[in-house]
Amino acid sequence: MIREADYWAQKENSPVVTREYVKRAIAEKNYRSNRIEERMQEMITDGIILVDTAGSEVGQINGLSVITLGDFAFGRPSRVTARVYMGRGGMVNIEREVKLSGPIHDKGVLILTGYLGGKYAHDRPISFSASLCFEQSYEGVEGDSASSTELYALLSALSGVPLKQGIAVTGSVNQLGKVQPIGGVNYKIEGFYAVCKAKGLMGDQGVIIPKSNERHLMLSDEVVEAVKEGKFHIWSVESIDQGIELLTGVPAGELLADGTYAEGTINGMVDKRLREMQEKMKKLAATGEKEEKAGNNRDDK
């Protein structure tokens, strides 16, 4: 980069390599290397790769990943979805089931089970089945930087509260619900900004990142200006509760003295749904036992 910046300075007979020549060197390097990035952006704009940047959906969210090609890297948004239904299967990571995920990604999904157990099973066991998926992913998935993203999608599916599609998320999470730092934060922000710009900036779009990644921000001038003008936003969070409030506009809800969460909060709605599913499972199990006993009595006769 220094050599190329010096080339542009010499070409214009400048005795000093200034900021403008360094920016020119970076821009020229990107232009030579970003053909695949441009094609992916076109597929998103044309609706071939499905990424929403407006509206709200239940159990659906935009995750962020980094694609590295030689010495060039760029961010790409990916749709993450979650479905919840009655059962005792627990969490199903579709990528893992088809052997498309690595061990670190698998660990991130398993951490979600620990979070849910500690948050909602402090006074009773919980029974549910859920599936998590990176949509339109045809290659391997590795890393835990989408674990908070998957958890938000899961909480939305459980509570029934939609998530804002104009916000993309990155960040890993631990069992206590603390959001942890990730790599490639600048590529991820710039990648989602490019998609929002192509589809139309509305002033309410942006990216949620871990607060501990604030020190790593070194974004392009265009993104910085968009943030200054309020056309695009970057939010930093330290916990899942903070993030879910930004994504839904609904309070997360604190644990009350009686072991429940306040009504009308995300945690309250998730807790209520889990309790309802548990009660229905108990009734179905009791009904099954009665039918089995009735069948055995008929056989005896």
Secondary structure elements and pairings:
Elements (H helix, E strand, L loop, with lengths): L1 H10 L7 H15 L1 H11 L10 E2 L2 E10 L2 E14 L4 E4 H4 L5 H18 L8 E6 L12 H13 L3 E2 L2 E3 L2 E2 L5 E2 L4 H15 L6 E5 L10 H8 L4 E5 L2 H9 L17 H35 L1
Parallel strand pairs: 2-7, 4-5, 7-10, 10-11
Antiparallel strand pairs: 1-6, 2-3, 3-5, 8-9
Helix pairs in contact: 1-2, 6-9, 6-10
Cα-to-Cα separation, first versus last residue:
89 Å
| Residue-averaged pLDDT | 90
User: CATH top level of the largest domain?
Assistant: Alpha Beta
Structural class: alpha/beta
Strands, count: 11
The geometry reads as: elongated
- CATH architecture title of the largest domain: 2-Layer Sandwich
- Evaluate the radius of gyration: 24 Å
- Uncertain segments are none
| Residues in helix, % | 40-55%
- Briefly note the CATH topology name of the largest domain: Ribosomal Protein S5, domain 2
Strand order of the largest sheet: 4-5-3-2-7-10-11
